[in-house]
Q: What sequence folds into this?
């Protein structure tokens, strides 16, 4: 059986959490925020109104018959014209003045054999 001193901390901590939670709920949530308030007037959108024309269109669907009758797309017609890349004067100067260079390779891993034996033990039998 645990002494009373061990039981007092969890009880007091859970009580503190419960009190803090209930006070934060009381502060953050007022009674008006639980329900939406009505402004008193409603507005409907008809199909021929300006608002209805500005709404996003519903997704279009094809029937099976329409899908079977559809012809394949022409890749040349659908790809568009390529736009050539135009470099600015600064980029052209940087490209002309650029010097090719290589980076030096790193040293090999001294523990590579040990790591390989650990990761692939079947290969090192």
A:
């Amino acid at each position: 059986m645990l002494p009373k001193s061990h039981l007092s901390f969890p009880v007091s901590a859970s009580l503190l959490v419960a009190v803090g939670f209930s006070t934060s709920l009381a502060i953050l949530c007022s009674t008006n925020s639980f329900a939406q308030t009505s402004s008193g007037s409603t507005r409907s959108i008809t199909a021929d109104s300006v608002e209805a024309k500005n709404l996003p269109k519903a997704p279009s669907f094809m029937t099976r018959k329409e899908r079977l009758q559809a012809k394949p797309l022409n890749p040349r017609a659908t790809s568009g014209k390529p736009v050539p890349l135009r470099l600015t004067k600064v980029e052209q100067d940087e490209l002309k003045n650029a010097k090719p260079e290589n980076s030096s390779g790193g040293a090999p891993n001294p523990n590579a054999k040990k790591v390989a034996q650990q990761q692939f033990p079947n290969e090192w039998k």
